[in-house]
Amino acid sequence: QKDNPWAKKIREGIEDVLRPSSEIIYFHMNTKANREGGPGKAEEAFALFKSLQPQGVIAADDDAQAMFVLPYLNDKTTTPVMFNGVNAAAEEYGFPNSHVSGVLERAHVRESLAFIKQIVPSIRNACFMTADVPPGLSLRAQVEAEKASYPVTVADFHLVGDNQQIEALGKSLNENCDVLFVDSLEGILDKEGKAQTYKDVFPLVQRIFDKPILGGNRYQVEQGAWAAVVKTGQEQGELSAEMLLQAMRGKAVASIPVTQNSRGQRIINITALERQGIVPKPAVLRGATLVRQQP
């Protein structure tokens, strides 16, 4: 989706690496707003690919792999393809192979939980909420695999499809959760059945849950979450672009291993903490980026 904050940051990372040496053309599948239209958009993307005959392709997120790379490019061309923003295991798509490699996207869940516990030491258990979409399912799998190492107990993981389901969770969340980790809320339907952005959905989450809320990305903290140790779209874009540049300069894709994001950035929403009367200790603030909530 062209105006999605995460997608914008991925583009920035790509351009930092490739703009000096390459012409970059973007195609947006828009599946966060209209997932059903994805296959049709993938067909358009393939028509563009055939007309351009590019030296390389970067495909961002799981829908782009499932709807575009696998049906149209995988094992059907020798053009180097680098993915980024992929939440599922690379093996689910048959990656890497002779012409496809890329960058996995993993949330800094353990680090975020430890961070919020420094801000609010009384936190003992956590719940999670995401849209019922592939990235949400992948986050749930990550949490299941890692939860034994978390500094708090995982109480519940909720996959939701619409506002009504979120509203119905209010009592349960407030009874069972000291903190709520939210991510991938894009696409949740409102009462008219219209797909929403994170900014559309978050006020409802705030209304039904009056305790600390963590996000997975910087824009989620800027739009209301209390804090996070965030992954960055720039890192996804930069890494995948650097890998593609190697391939376009002749390095065999089979020798370029799949990697994943490693940089974590601590973000605190000062507006949210001030609203709660919370003053973090100086040691917690050291090295963190402080943001004010966007109107």
Structural commentary:
By secondary structure, the chain is an alpha/beta fold. It has 12 helices and 11 strands. Strands 1-2-3-9 form a 4-stranded parallel β-sheet, sandwiched between helices. The chain has a 4-stranded parallel β-sheet with strand order 5-4-6-7. The longest helix is centred in the C-terminal third of the chain and has 16 residues, at 233-248.
CA-atom Rg in angstroms: 20 Å
Instruction: Give the overall form.
Output: globular
Strand % is 15-25%
- Report the average pLDDT across residues: 95
Strand order of the largest sheet: 1-2-3-9
Helix content: 40-55%
Structural class: alpha/beta
- Low-pLDDT windows of residues: none
Give the count of helical stretches: 12
Helix-strand pattern, N to C?
HHEHEEHEHEHHEHEHEHEEHHE
SSE topology sketch:
Elements: H1 5-18, H2 38-52, E1 57-60, H3 62-73, E2 81-86, E3 100-104, H4 109-119, E4 125-131, H5 134-146, E5 153-160, H6 163-168, H7 170-176, E6 179-182, H8 198-208, E7 213-214, H9 218-222, E8 227-230, H10 233-248, E9 259-260, E10 265-269, H11 270-276, H12 282-285, E11 289-291
Offer a quick outline of the entry.
This protein is an alpha/beta fold and 295 residues long.
Descriptive terms for the model:
single chain, 295 residues, alpha/beta, four-stranded parallel sheet, 41% helix, 17% strand
